[in-house]
């Protein structure tokens, strides 16, 4: 298939592109390479895909990979209503994997406009292009953040998610509602994926795994929120991407026959890990104890996440299962190598 992967210079988008190429698909990667975090990391991910910096830095120009015949990249803003339809028209995609978004719970308190631009306006543009250019299936990133103040665990896609506690979560819930509307009105098969705390090599520098490792290595205290009384369903990047690719590759024909154009899945490890146990695992791999700065819970944070993945098992015979021990070791090994 020919697949558009948005957010291709991002953490999940980079890995998804790589796996799709290895399977034999043709991939067009799109990213605006914003400066929410270190752009060098984004450009280096693209280098791994064979796209050089000076090519990737030019807006609205398709550049070919030097490593993969099946990969090309374009720097573009999803909210660009003129350029995005041109791309869809010229490239004739079969399916779209929309992983681009303004990420981060805490940053949404400081810069709400960027979430509206990317996550709402940008997503609407994707939906319109899918509608107008006969896209067979739209798979898009949602987030475990949509569960907000839900107390019942593990979180199920059958649960009510009307109580988000960050603007980021609200935009992700909005994406699901928008997709539902387009699926209903225009019979576009859409699948939303609620990711649970993704970590691993090439991960985002604003997330706990990276922040803790970096601070410990550099003899700085780590910030431990809610005095350590947090639990997360930490999910290794390979497990996330395996789920994304399985869902992308399986035709939506059966759903169409049953008039089920809209679907949402959790992708998580189905296991809630105490934050202090997670930190211990990092300390073990670095052979160094963390200096802990115990702090109250941050606005927008939830105390616990835990994914029910029954639907993923039933529909795709798939269950993420990478242990926290293996996942943390793999990240720490990458970190040491990348930062020498």
TrEMBL record:
InterPro entries, from UniProt?
A: Epimerase_deHydtase, NAD(P)-bd_dom_sf
Query: Which Pfam families does the record cross-reference, listed alphabetically?
Result: Epimerase
- Sorted UniProt keywords: NAD
NAD-dependent epimerase/dehydratase domain segment(s): 3-268
Is NAD a UniProt keyword of this protein?
yes
PANTHER family linked: EPIMERASE-RELATED
Protein name (record) = UDP-glucuronate 4-epimerase
The taxonomic lineage of its organism, from the top, reads: Bacteria, Pseudomonadati, Bacteroidota, Flavobacteriia, Flavobacteriales
């Amino acid at each position: 298939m020919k697949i558009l992967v948005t957010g291709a210079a991002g953490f999940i988008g980079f890995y998804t592109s790589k796996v799709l190429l290895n399977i034999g698909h043709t991939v067009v990667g799109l990213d605006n390479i914003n400066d929410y975090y270190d752009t060098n990391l984004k450009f280096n991910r693209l280098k791994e895909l064979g796209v050089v910096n000076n090519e990737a830095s030019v807006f609205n120009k398709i550049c070919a990979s030097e490593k993969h015949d099946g990969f090309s990249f374009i720097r573009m803003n999803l909210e660009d209503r003129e350029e995005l339809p041109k791309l869809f028209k010229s490239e004739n995609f079969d399916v779209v994997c929309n992983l681009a978004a303004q990420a981060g719970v805490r940053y949404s308190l400081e810069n709400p406009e960027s979430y509206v631009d990317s996550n709402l306006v940008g997503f609407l543009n994707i939906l319109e292009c899918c509608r107008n250019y006969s896209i067979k299936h739209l798979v898009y990133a949602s987030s475990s953040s949509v569960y907000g103040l839900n107390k019942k665990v593990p979180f199920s896609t059958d649960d009510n998610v009307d109580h988000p506690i960050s603007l980021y979560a609200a935009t992700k819930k909005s994406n699901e509602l928008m997709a539902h509307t387009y699926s209903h009105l225009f019979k576009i098969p859409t699948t939303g994926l609620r990711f649970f705390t993704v970590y691993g090599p090439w991960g985002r520098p604003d997330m706990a795994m990276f922040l803790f490792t970096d601070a410990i290595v550099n003899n700085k205290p780590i910030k431990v929120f809610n005095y350590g009384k947090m639990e997360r369903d930490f999910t290794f990047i390979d497990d996330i991407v395996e789920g994304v690719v399985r869902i992308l590759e399986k035709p939506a024909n059966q759903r169409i026959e049953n008039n089920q154009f809209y679907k949402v899945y959790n992708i998580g490890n189905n296991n809630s890990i105490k934050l202090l146990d997670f930190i211990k695992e990092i300390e073990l791999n670095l052979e160094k104890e963390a200096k802990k700065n115990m702090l109250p819970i941050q606005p927008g944070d939830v105390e616990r996440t835990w994914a029910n993945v029954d639907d993923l098992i039933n529909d795709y015979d798939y269950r993420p299962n990478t242990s926290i021990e293996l996942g943390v070791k793999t990240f720490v090994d990458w970190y040491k190598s990348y930062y020498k």
